[in-house]
Structure formats: structure tokens, C-alpha cells
Amino acid sequence: MTAALEEKLLDLTANIENYVSATSDGLSLYQGHHLDKTYVLTPRAYKVPMRIEAVARTDSSNIRLKYGKGQIIFNWERNHDSLRCGEPSKGGAYNNMNGRIPINEWNHFVWEIEPDFMRVTVNGTERLFLKGKFSNVKGQAGIGSAFRSKVDIKSFRVAGEETDPPPAPLKPLMFEYDETHISVPQGSLETAVQWYSHHLGLEPKLGFGPCSLHPSMKGTLMQFPKGRGSLYLITVSEEPEHFQVNREQADHFHLQLMANDVKVAYDYAKDNGLHTSSLFEERGKVWFHLYDPYGNRLTVTQGKDSDGESAGSGIYGCVMPIVTVSDLERSVEWYTKVLGLKKSGRGSGDGDVLLRGINRHNGANVNILQLVHDPNCSNPTACRPGIRQYFFVERHNLKKAYQRAQKWCPLIAPLEDKSFHFYDPDGNRINVLS
Asked: Which intervals hold domain VOC (predicted)?
């Protein structure tokens, strides 16, 4: 390594300093006990056109290149073949199946960003080409690891015009949306997987259980074909406070499923003896509630992007969960101030608001929740039903996140076992893990 190259690496700024160390090869990023995203950034920002060039290796998953609001993920923890892209202008998600790189081998990465397109290559082979409007993008460039991957960096170079003055330090990210978890009774996981597979078309992703919130928890990640959404089916062998589930109570949080034809899906449910609500038609929309064998409520809505592949019910995917609230304006303020979510202008309508945030597993800035106004929404008691929303907080931010929740929430559980829960103004439960 040349002296100039070594100096360039040492100029990079770590988001969590004690997770980064200098080695004979360059730098090493690793946190073996936590799931934190560890990365190093250039001290200055760069304008488009610009080019990032790095030589790095991973021992397992997750090498992540960062620039502006975007990132490129290789060896994604859920599927090494899936290249996950957040484009740098707005963080919009674009994915393909060119993400796999060899482990424990040095790889040469190049990310070129021009005003009207971007290109990513690995070892000289193009992995991604994307057209876009990037002329006004400027930001720091970086490289990192995640989900316990060990990433070694031999070189990291950036070519482009630097901005002046330097950007303000990055604010620590608090809450990232993890996944929708559906709890089923102990001993029911296998039959639950069969029910969700047969009637909804979900497929188990073997080897990808849920995060270890508690030693008693087991689960299966279920995915719709062609990346149309996913959820976790989980069960616990005991009921500590954080995982209590009262299956006799109504809930205000439920998952939205997409169907080719809602009325066909409704007829399928009736013909197969599935528990449903009535069929609702209002403001040009048609939907109904479908209940799994354990009382968990799923809302079936009309999809818009089916490619013809679906289960016998015609259900082919899921979209962001719904949270029903009694005062929409108050709830929007609460979710933005407490969880740091942003109101989305696109897709929000009369009586509902879409909220954007960071998806923990791919880093994309996307719509993650839909708040829907219901004037009859009543305050539930503390125990919640089996479908829950989970947010992830990196370990070094956990105490600060808890203090923020305490400030806004009179009802909050103690911080124990790297997790806690609290409630929005309508009693909808927010679960936090680290």
C-alpha cells in the first residue's frame, strides 16, 4: 500500500469508531455481537458527475457502497444474489439479481454517477445500469458492513468536484422499519406455514428466522414470489411481557394483501370456509378482512401490478401495513416526531396518509406505513393482538431512542433484553428491538 493510499483511508470518518480498525491491508469494519450498520465516509461531499472506486472483501454478507441518499448492497443478508440499490437522489429502491460476490476475496467495485445515469461494475463486469436525474445530487461517499459481516477495505478513492463548505455531520438514524411479525400460538408454526402457503401463496424462506428478540422465539420468513412482499410467522415458547398477545381483542394494526380481484378472493375465502368480514365498498375501493386460524386480521385489497402468478385465492403480494387512528393530523405529527417518519405526498388521499421511512434490510427510503382515519377507533388496552410492527434501532442509539419515546409516550415498557415497546395516541403498539 502506498503512503498516499494509506493516508486517504485514514481520512475516512467512521460512524461508530470502535467498530473500525486499521490493519496491514487497510481498514477493517466489524461488529460481531450487534447488527449495527458500520461504515466509513469521506470527510467532504462530492457533486455529480463523480466516481467511487473501492477494493474490498467480505467474510460473509453485506458490502455496502454509499453516496448521497443512496447505497448499493452486495451479498444482501437475505439473498446474496439480490443486488439492492437505493438511488442517490431520493433513495428510491431498484433491485436485480446481480448482487452476489465471492467471499474472502478482493473485489474491485466502481460506481459511476453521471447527470442522467449511473453504472455499477464489479471486477469489470456491469452489475447495474440505471437512468435517472442525478445532476443536483451531492453528498458524502462511503463503504460499510452490516448484519455482522466483516468487511476489509484495501482502497477507497473518489473522483469528483468537492462541495464547499463540508457537509454537517450525519445525524444518527433512530428507527428503521424491520418487518411485520405475525404471532401464532406455541406449537402452531408448521400448520401456520402450511395455511399461509396454501391460501395466500407465500413461500417459506428456509434459514431466515426472525431476529433473536428472545431465546424462546422461533419463526419462519415467508415471501411472496418475485419479491411481492414478506412477513415473519413467529411463535414463542413462553410469554414475557414484551411478547404478550391477547387474541381476543380487536386491533388497529393489520397487514394489507393484494389480490388480482378482491371479489374473487372473497368468494374463494367463503368457499374454503375461511373466516372473513363482509365485503366493503367505499370511495371507489373494495376490500375485506381475512382472519387466519389464530384470529390475526389481514386486509385484502385490490392490487395494481399483478403479473398473473398467484394462489388459488388470487392473492399475490402484500404492501405496507395499515394503522387505524382516530385523529389523523395528531397521529401524523406523533409518528413524524417520535419515529422520525416523513409524510409522503404521493399516494396520500382523503382520510389516509402514507409515511416514509428507512427499511432496515435494504436501507431504502420507502413508504412503510399507512395511517387511516377511523372516527370510531377506540383506545385499546395495553395487550395487543398477534400482528405487530417492529422497528430496529442500532445498539449505540438504543438508549437515546428510549429517551425520545419516554418524552412523547406516557405508557412505555421498561428497557429490557435490548428491546422495549410503547403506544401511539390510539394505543397501537410500537415494538423496538436492537
From this structure: 178-303, 315-434
Burial 57-78 (b: 16+ CB within 10 A, else e): bbeebbbbbbbbbbbbbbbbbb
**CA separation (Å) from 48 to 65, 68, 228, 274?**
16, 10, 33, 55
**pLDDT number for residue 153:** 94
3-class DSSP state of 46 = strand
Query: What's the order of all strands across the beta sheet hosting 70-74?
Result: 13-14, 38-41, 141-145, 63-67, 70-74, 83-86, 93-96
Indicate the SS3 state at residue 359: strand
| pLDDT, average across residues 229-244 | 68
Residue range 151-162, pLDDT digits in tens: 999 999 999 998
What distance in Å separates the CA atoms of residue 264 and residue 7, rounded to the nearest whole number? 64
Homologous superfamily of 176-433 in CATH?
2,3-Dihydroxybiphenyl 1,2-Dioxygenase, domain 1 (3.10.180.10)
Tell me which H or E stretch contains 259: strand 253-259
pLDDT (tens digit per residue) in 187-214: 888 999 999 999 998 888 765 555 455 5
Helix (H), strand (E) counts: the chain: 5, 31
Distance CA 420, CA 432 (A): 5
> Residues 27, 152: contact at Cβ < 8 Å?
yes
From the centroid of its chain, how far is CA 61? Answer: 17
pLDDT in tens, 247-268: 555 557 778 898 999 999 999 9
- d(Cα 57, Cα 37) in Å, to the nearest integer? 16
Cell numbers 399507512 correspond to 370
Do 3-162 and 176-433 come out as alike in CATH topology? no
Give yes or no for a contact between 231 and 255, defined as CB atoms under 8 angstroms apart.
yes
Class of domain 3-162: mainly beta
Instruction: Name the grid cell of 182.
Output: 405475525
pLDDT surpasses 70 at 119: yes
Beta strand spans in 78-207 (E): 83-86, 93-96, 107-114, 117-122, 125-131, 138-139, 141-145, 151-162, 176-183, 203-205
For the chain, the structural domain boundaries read 3-162, 176-433
